[in-house]
Specification:
seven-stranded mixed β-sheet, TEII, about 250 residues, about 35% helix, alpha/beta, AB_hydrolase_fold, Thioesterase, Rossmann fold
């Protein structure tokens, strides 16, 4: 069944409007991902939390737009789309590349808008201050596809469909370039709470690299480790969302 969404602009998808919710959660996709990845999250958290999912340029209904291969530029594009969504507390969730986008967006919200996010949830991503030398975006198509298969983050039907695969490759490669060339610029830590999630068998981030998110906030820090690899969250969704819902509920009562 096709997901029904509000037509609320290029960047934001709202699959389950929840006008009476006390808080919103903005979800940021992984490299090669799209807003629809978060449809189950939106369904599960509604109506207590209204979920907004970001649609990056270059995929699905934005496929004709140029890809953005710089994470701060991507975050700034999202920032410009949030003007109508800051009337309630706004929390951020990002998986993999999306976690770094969320971090940059949180910094912009604090420094430029005077808005402290209600919470930053990071998943499957090392802290910004923990760089790695990765160059997957420079691989041949065959090598790049092998990486996607290794992480199990792309629908198996797509990886087996040559036409669909060629369609998503430009956006996925651009995202990898953005994530792998990102360089953290030191600055003031965030003022919002941060919770970091990680799979204990994730080849893209170690437990120590994920715990280092604690260095990037002056507020509460929480850490949760799950069995699984880079996409542990697809098999531990219920447990992960319960943790998030409990923490977001605490914001509502402050």
């Amino acid at each position: 069944m096709t997901a029904v969404q509000d037509d609320i602009g290029l960047w934001i998808r709202r699959y389950h409007p929840a006008p009476d919710s006390a808080i919103r959660l903005l979800c940021l996709p992984h490299a090669g991902g799209s807003a629809s990845f978060y449809f189950p999250v939106s369904r599960s958290l509604s109506p207590t939390v209204e979920t907004l999912a970001v649609q990056y340029p270059g995929r699905q209904d934005r496929r004709s737009e140029p890809n953005i291969d710089d994470l701060p530029t991507l975050a700034r594009g999202i920032l410009g789309a949030l003007d109508g969504w800051l009337d309630k507390p706004l929390a951020l969730f990002g998986h993999s590349m999306g976690a770094t986008v969320g971090f940059e967006l949180a910094r912009m919200l604090e420094q430029e808008r005077g808005v402290v996010p209600a919470w930053l949830f990071t998943s499957g991503r090392r802290a910004p201050s923990m760089p790695r030398d990765e160059r997957i975006h420079q691989e041949s198509d065959e090598g790049f596809i092998a990486e996607l298969r290794r992480l199990n983050g792309t629908d198996g039907n797509i990886l087996g469909d040559e036409e669909m695969l060629r369609m998503i490759l430009p956006a996925a490669r651009s995202d990898y370039r953005a994530a792998e060339t990102y360089r953290y610029v030191p600055g003031a830590p965030l003022s919002c709470p941060v919770t970091a999630f990680v799979g204990n068998d994730d080849p893209k981030v170690t437990v120590a690299e994920a715990r280092a998110w604690e260095q990037h906030t002056t507020a509460e820090f929480d850490f949760h480790q799950f069995d699984g690899g880079h996409f542990y969250l697809t098999t531990h969704q219920t447990q992960l969302l319960k943790i998030m819902a409990d923490q977001l509920r605490s914001v509502s009562f402050r």
